[in-house]
Structures are given as C-alpha cells and as structure tokens.
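Supplementary Note 2. Why include the ligand at all?

Several targets in our set were suspected to adopt different conformations when bound, so apo predictions alone were not considered sufficient. For every target with a known small-molecule partner we therefore ran a joint prediction. The input for alpha-D-glucopyranuronic acid is given below.
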Amino acid sequence: MKRLTFLPNALIARGIILTAMAAALLSVCNAAPVPIVLTGADRRPAISLDGNWAAIVDPYFSGLFSFHHEEKKNGFFLNRKAQPGDPFPTEYDFSKAPTLKVPADWNTQRESLFFYEGPIWYERDFTYQPKEHTRVFLHVGAANYHSWFWVNGQKVCEHEGGYTSFNCEVTAAIHAGGNFVVAAVDNTRHEDGVPTLETDWWNYGGLTRSVSLIEVPEEFIDQYDVHLSQTNDSVIEGWVHVEGGHAGQRVLVILPELDRMVSFTLDGNSRTTIRIPVADLERWSPETPNLYEVKISTANDSVTDLIGFRTIETRGTEILLNGKPIFLRGISIHAEAPYRTGRANTDKDAETLLGWAKELGCNFVRLAHYPHDESMLRAADSMGLLVWSENPVYWALQFDNPKVLAKAEQQLDEEIGTSRNHAAIILWSMANETPNTEARTRFIETEAGYARTLDPTRLITAALLVRADGQTKIIDDPLGKALDVIGFNEYIGWYEGHPESADTTEWRVEYQKPLIVSEFGSGAKAGLHGEENQRWTEEYQASIYRHQFGMLNRIPQLRGMSPWVLMDFRSPNRPLTSIQDEFNRKGLISDQGQKKQAFFILQKAYKEKTVGKPE
Ligand code: GCU
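The joint prediction is reproduced in token form.
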C-alpha cells in the first residue's frame, strides 16, 4: 500500500501499523487491493457508470457466503448465466433482475426497501477500450456501509465506511469490449462500525454517490495540497505526490490568473513541496469567494482545480479568517435531499440546501455528521460558505477497540485526502456527542493528532456534551484540551425545561478557546400552529430561538453557531404519527420546502447581527 510514502515519518510509521492491521484484515477476507485516495478525482475526465444497475436483494448474503459462512469462490460476483447441462443450478440472473438507480440510496427507491438493512448486489455492463501506458480506477463517490467490488469476476477492492470516496484499481481486470462490474453493498450496522449501531439519521444504503471509471497514466498525481501560507500572505504553498513518480521528476504548477508558472522536483518519496510567491492575490472569503485555476502537471499527467486562498487560525478566544475576527453565523445540515428525500448527491441538492442557508444570512454551515458530497463542498466554495466537516465518530463507538480507531482514521484519510483543497472547509470535526470516558478521550485525542498531521492548515473541533450544576451549564469536557475550537450541543427548552429556561441559564466555560454552539433547536411540524408553550407548533420553535439568542449573547467567547437543523430529515428514532412520521422535525424548513416561523426569526437575527459578537 504505497499511498503513505509522501507523509512525514511519524505517519509513515503509523501508516505501517495501519497497513499491518489492514493486511491482517484482508488476509481474512480473500485479499483485494486497498482502494486509494485521489485528490480532485471529480476534476478528472471520467467514464460515468451512473444510471440503472441490475440489483438483487440478498438478505442472507448467500451470494458471497456459503451455508457454513465461508467466502464463496463462485459467488454472484461471477455474474454467471445458467448453461444447458450445468451439473449445478445457478440461482440468480442479473439480466432478469429489477434495477436500482445509481447514484441513490435504495430505501427511497422502493417501498419494500424503505426499512431494508442488509446486502444488495448491483451489476452493470459497460464497454471499454484499453489504452497504452494507462491505469484505470473505479471511482466510487460513496457506498454505504461495507462494499465489495469485482470487475469481470475479479475482486478489485473492499471498503468500509459510507460517506467518503475511494478508488479501486481495475487495470488488470478490465479488457477490450464488453465488461461487467458487480458490487455488493451492505448497510448492516455494526457495534464496531464508524458510525456504530445508533444514529439519529436514516441508514440510507447503496451506491449513494456517483460511480465512474477514471483513466490515469502509469505515474499520476494522486494527492496534492495547495493553500495560502499561514505566515506570509504573498506565498502559496503545499505539496504534490505522484504515484509511481521518481526522484528528480519535474512537476509544474501553473496559476494562470496570477501569471505564475513554477517547476518543482520530486524527492525520493515521489513528493515535492511547493512554494510560489504571488502578487495581487484576492483572498477567498464569504463576501468574496474568489477561486483561482490551479493546474498541476507532470510529463504525462495533469489535473486542474479551482481553489480559493484564505487563512484560518485562532488567537485566544477569537477565530481569525484572513487575519480578522469572525463570527460564524451558521446552520447544521444533513445530506437529506430536499423534496424527494433520500441521500442528497446532486449539484441541485447542494444549490437548494446552501441557497436556503444563504437566504438565512449564513456565512457558515455545519455539514453533519459525516463528510458530504463533493458537489456540496464545491457549491460552498463558490457560494462563499465556511464549512465544518465531520468524521462520523457519533455517540458511543467502541472507543477501546484499536480496529475502530483504524477505521476512523481511514475515513479521515479519505475525507481530508479528497477534500483538502476546499477553501470553504475551515474546521475538521472529530466527533459528535461522545461519552466523557478515558477511552473516548484517548481515542479522539489520537484521531485529532492524526488529522493535524494530515492537514496542519485547518482547525480541529468536535461537538461536546455539556454538564449542569443547577441553572449553570458547564463546558469542561477533558476532550476540549485537544481541540482548537470547542463545539457544544444543548437543547434547553426542548429536551429539558421550557423556552424561557434559557433566560436564567448561566454558562461556565473551563477553556480560553473559541466556542461554537454546534446544536440547539426544537421540533416543529410545518403548518402546525398554537400557543408558544405548545410543543411541536411553529410558535414553540420560534420561542426557543428567541430565548436562545439572549442566552447565547451572554457567553463571552461564543464565536459561532449552527442551530439544529436547516431542513427536516429522516430518522428511525422519530415515530410520532402525524407529527414526525420518521422525520426529525427540528428543521427550520420542512422536507417539502415550507419555511417555519423560526426560519425568519433566525434570518432577522443574522441579517441584523443581533446574535453573536459583531465583527
Ligand atoms: C443530537 C444529535 C443529532 C440529533 C439531535 C436531535 O444532539 O447530535 O444528531 O439529531 O440531537 O436530537 O434532534
């Protein structure tokens, strides 16, 4: 597994441990190459495999495991057709099977799959013409949760994690003419999963983001990082890694709008650091979301990205964007598709959701609780919305299980490796509402340390729980020490007390760090009206917001907020008939786009800057 060669030594050591653990795991599962991370994969020309795939629902996974639960040699991945005279029955046929759309979750495609958790097989035929000196990767935008891939019956990779993209090499398996790809995707929840058994969002299964074939030369640019120097604002810096590259090889970085073209040389790790003095650079900010074309090329490969340049840091309890204090006027968002519901995955979904956030007067969004689609991040870059991006370390994972830590770090690798050049992303969140135990703190401190080595240019945060002492809320979770910015969730007035309870609530914060209230809110059924003290009405939700603003303005180091939540989203924990109907109704907007009263309350507060510290 070569992808770790360009990172600092400590990480190579850690990489080797991870490799050893992954290798041990793979040997058990009939080894398949480990997928790689490709920065800017969606900026490369690709052969799309989206569309209708044949699909076979296989609740007992008999397509992969025998009746003694051994992995089969002749599973559904052979896509075999029954032959006359066969001495054995073939009990599946993709050519006769119904289809499922890709990219999409399966739950909202068929009534019978709405609650389905288990394996489903996907098959798709495609034609291909191999080219000289060319490697081919199967790019998977996301597959929830555990997935296996075969091309022409040959296993090409296996992957765990439902919200990050990965790339499987298929060069050896693909051939001229007709080919077929088979995927098994299993969204069964596991105790040792990341996330684990309990989540307050729907466990949408399937090939939920785009699938395509990406062609690259034998040596190619797999990862790159380009950002504005934190210490010198007329220098762009970063690094480039060339998979299969060799020491002394030239890498050219071109910024046409800044009239810069600079050549660099790879070191023994096929990596080069880059440093480019620039003049007249217009920084990226929510008000001015300037993006610059950046073209990185070697003799045989090139990738062109659109990147904004800004700096982000903390100074005491301040968050500084481009050196100036900023207050993050935000909202939390789940990747639930507006109107049609299901997993959000299109440019249109991103424009609608982020369009509503802009309409609210936001300069910030918390993308919860897992990495969102590249289309969302591209839209945030161009619309000028700062982003909190989160690794799905959610609630009570097996924090004392090293395999679980390895999975969390693998997902960080993929999240940061894929999305590191989005100017919009300022915060990597390590976790949400985890129990205050030593194992948990050790786990997330390690995770945070790993994130810092992957990307030292951004701030590390997490959404913490708070404790109470009478009317005083206390933020002193020991995990706060490992964070640059402390997020905290509170539901005063909803899960405890009444909207007015906020008026008499005081806060004690044990850290001299910037704070973000990453969640507060209230359930409300759009169109349900009544007294302010009547739960589920829009009036109750509006009252919660009004009382929260007063309280939040009394927290001196509050530097941001992302109320829960922009839009109602599906959750298996919300069965209240005719009110929730399997939706979490804390949205300011219903899943059908109806704006609730609280939407306008928050919009007014953001536009008039009456909540939060004026910049
Ligand atoms: C929690 C959690 C969210 C959840 C929300 C709620 O704080 O982080 O995922 O949806 O509360 O209860 O509505």
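The mean pLDDT is 95. The first helix runs from residue 9 to 28. Comparable summaries for the other entries are listed in the accompanying table.
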